[in-house]
Write a structure and sequence with these properties.
The structure is a homodimer.
Chain A: H1 9-22, H2 35-42, H3 46-58, E1 62-65, E2 69-72, H4 76-100, H5 105-114
Antiparallel strand pairs in A: 1-2
The structure holds a DNA duplex.
Chain lengths: 122, 122
DNA sequence: CATAGTGTACTATGCACATAGTGCACTAAG
DNA sequence: CTTAGTGCACTATGTGCATAGTACACTATG
């Protein structure tokens, strides 16, 4: 994974995991890697990994059981809600960005239509 | 201005100024507030304000003259290029966000169409 | 009970960000 | 020349992020 130095690593990894959850690549109830393994996989520090799971639990996406590990929530409804929430967040960030440079929703749709499609089909 | 604690203040203010430039509220050649004034206006430290102007100059958006102040670039072409660059950035961030949660360009347009329009007309 | 895997807690270091404060140099205007 | 406004340089402090390393507690398994 390529980290953006402008964004905290724990946030980037947490987002990556949430994306895997809402796309079903990590189904409800799935066991996540242990903190030390997660650190190895992403090339980060175990302390940072622990913090990531704490954040995911705080958001209700995962549950942690001492001595057992961290697991994706069992509630498919929670996962669906998370997906919609992430979509809404992306849309409102996008529209706010465009509004800041004097563009509206129509302009937004036009921009997306004209956007280069390289690597958009995967 | 309301600062997001997750994003460096200098970045947020620099973005705000660039938005004012590309929307014409700060026309080419306009004089920007002095570093100390900028700090007062945004409620930040003069050191941070100085850094913001350094960043804007690094991006070619502003020019600084010692003893005189900092000014918006004279080149309307540069301003137009900046606006397009900011728009492209917003679009690609948005599409990357949606792709991360398993949505494509068609979904994006649909989401924007259905988006709540409260305070979208200004 | 012994072990491996796990979460949790703690100290310490380096870095960037933001703050506070001071001083100096340059420019234009009186 | 003096003054006000300005950019610029420097030291110092506090905070959050990320790292490194160590130690302890819980759980399941054999």
């Amino acid at each position: 994974m390529n980290f953006d130095p402008m964004i905290p690593i724990w946030l980037q990894v947490a987002t990556s995991i949430k994306q895997q959850i809402v796309t079903g690549r990590l189904p409800p109830g799935a066991k996540l890697p242990g903190g030390r393994d997660l650190a190895l996989q992403y090339g980060i520090n175990p302390n940072t990994a622990a913090r990531i799971y704490q954040e995911l639990e705080r958001e209700g996406v995962c549950q942690t059981q001492r001595g057992l590990g961290t697991f994706v929530t069992d509630s498919g409804e929670t996962v669906q809600r998370l997906r919609e929430e992430m979509a809404r967040g992306a849309v409102s960030r996008f529209l706010a960005d465009l509004k800041g440079i004097g563009m509206n929703r129509e302009d937004a749709i036009e921009l997306i239509r004209k956007e280069d499609n390289t690597d958009d089909h995967q």
